[in-house]
């Protein structure tokens, strides 16, 4: 029996198996090396993208010294969540994927729950996270100076259209939101000359044009943070963010940032459709082309610095109106 193990047939089988295993191991090593090279190339490319975005913000802010003359506003402190566990700060901007980034921060803070288990009310109203606004000035400065900081932005016009559709276009959600009903009733009263009693009472179904007229009136009204300018919310000319992501490229930007922070093994940014902007160029063009030209020009002036600071090009479909 002992010598049978070394028969020519068995030796051939053993040698063949060994060769196959070595070949498979070699293939695995090659694939591993290729994956490693691919990851390194991705991280290098994304690092350069992030560097250029940060550098551009510095350049644009230098052209607007008035944006850095006063201290950081309470609004900005109120919009910055922090994680002591990971020494991380996040300035959230509504309508820029902030729901999912809040979920990410919650998981990083407490290492529990899957993102899919977190309901909207928990994320926005009862997330248990602290903001810089709750701390002393000394604590605020200490964290700003020593923690990593990130911000996500999006096309400013796409954002304001998204805010309108979300808060006033979805009638089911609108009827659950008395706060935004207050805006709509005011808009209805001011800008619909023949509004019915029911329309004035409910504020339902205000139009996009009416909303823009409200935003662009001579005496600027109160801006909710869903349509407040992004640079006013997060003060990029006063805070040097380490990571500047764009919603339009959130998949790549999030993967890079989480990997660079070495937390990619703990959390992955959701790759669902609601993690991406829904405003196509065609839809944006339609939304703005029908606006009165004067209101369009005024709307551009409101969001012009957001376009400039965060490197979004002036939309081609309105350029013809702005030079007249």
Kindly report the spatial arrangement of strands forming the biggest sheet. 1-2-3-4
Structural class: mainly alpha
Number of helices: 15
Q: What string, H for helix and E for strand, traces the elements in order?
A: HHEEHHHEHHHHHHEHHHH
The low-pLDDT segments are none
Task: Please indicate the percent range of residues in DSSP E strands (runs of 2 or more).
Answer: 5-15%
How would you describe the shape?
globular
| C-alpha termini separation | 98 Å
Percent helix, as a range, is 55-70%
Average of per-residue pLDDT values: 87
Please give the number of β-strands. 4
The tally of structural domains comes to 1
Round the Cα radius of gyration to an integer and report it.
Answer: 26 Å
* Largest sheet report: 4 strands, mixed
Family: Belongs to the sulfotransferase 2 family.
Protein name: Carbohydrate sulfotransferase
InterPro entries: Carb_sulfotrans_8-10, Sulfotransferase
EC number: 2.8.2.-
What topology emerges from the helices and strands here?
Blueprint: H1 8-62, H2 74-78, E1 80-83, E2 88-91, H3 98-110, H4 120-124, H5 137-146, E3 148-153, H6 156-169, H7 171-174, H8 178-191, H9 197-202, H10 208-215, H11 230-234, E4 243-246, H12 250-260, H13 281-289, H14 293-309, H15 316-322
Parallel strand pairs: 2-3, 3-4
Antiparallel strand pairs: 1-2
Membrane topology: Single-pass type II membrane protein
GO molecular function: sulfotransferase activity
InterPro entries: Carb_sulfotrans_8-10, Sulfotransferase
Description:
This protein has 324 residues and is mainly alpha-helical. The protein has one domain. It is 56% helix and 6% strand. It contains 15 helices and 4 strands. The protein has helices at residues 8-62, 74-78, 98-110, 120-124, 137-146, 156-169, 171-174, 178-191, 197-202, 208-215, 230-234, 250-260, 281-289, 293-309, 316-322; strands spanning 80-83, 88-91, 148-153, 243-246. It has a 4-stranded mixed sheet with strand order 1-2-3-4, sandwiched between helices. Strand 1 and strand 2 (88-91) form a beta hairpin.
């Amino acid at each position: 029996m002992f010598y049978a193990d070394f028969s020519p047939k068995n030796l051939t089988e053993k040698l063949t198996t060994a060769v196959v295993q070595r070949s498979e191991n070699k293939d695995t090593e090659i694939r591993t090396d290729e994956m490693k090279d691919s990851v390194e190339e991705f991280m290098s490319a994304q690092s350069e993208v992030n560097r250029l975005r940060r550098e551009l913000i510095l350049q644009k802010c230098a052209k607007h010294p008035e944006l850095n003359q006063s201290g950081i506003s309470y609004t900005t402190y109120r919009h910055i969540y922090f994680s002591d566990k990971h020494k991380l700060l996040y300035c959230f901007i509504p309508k820029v994927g902030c729901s999912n980034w809040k979920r990410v921060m919650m998981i990083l803070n407490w290492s529990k729950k899957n993102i899919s288990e977190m309901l909207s009310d928990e994320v926005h109203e009862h997330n248990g996270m602290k903001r810089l606004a709750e701390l002393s000035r000394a604590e605020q400065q200490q964290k700003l100076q020593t923690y990593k900081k990130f911000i996500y932005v999006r096309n400013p016009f796409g954002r304001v259209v998204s805010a309108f559709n979300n808060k006033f276009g979805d009638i089911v959600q609108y009827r659950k939101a008395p706060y935004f009903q207050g805006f709509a009733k005011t808009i209805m009263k001011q800008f619909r000359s023949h509004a019915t009693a029911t329309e004035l009472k409910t504020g339902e179904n205000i139009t996009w044009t009416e909303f823009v007229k409200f935003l662009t009136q001579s005496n600027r009204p109160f801006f909710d943070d869903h349509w407040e300018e992004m640079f006013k919310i997060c003060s990029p000319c006063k805070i040097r963010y380490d990571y500047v992501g764009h919603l339009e490229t959130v998949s790549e930007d999030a993967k890079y940032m989480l990997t660079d922070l070495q937390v990619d093994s703990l959390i992955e940014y959701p790759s669902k459709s609601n993690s991406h902007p829904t405003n196509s160029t065609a839809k944006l063009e339609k939304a703005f082309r029908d606006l009165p030209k004067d209101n369009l020009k005024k709307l551009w002036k409101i969001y012009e610095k957001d376009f400039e600071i965060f490197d979004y090009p002036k939309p081609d479909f309105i350029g013809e109106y702005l030079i007249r």
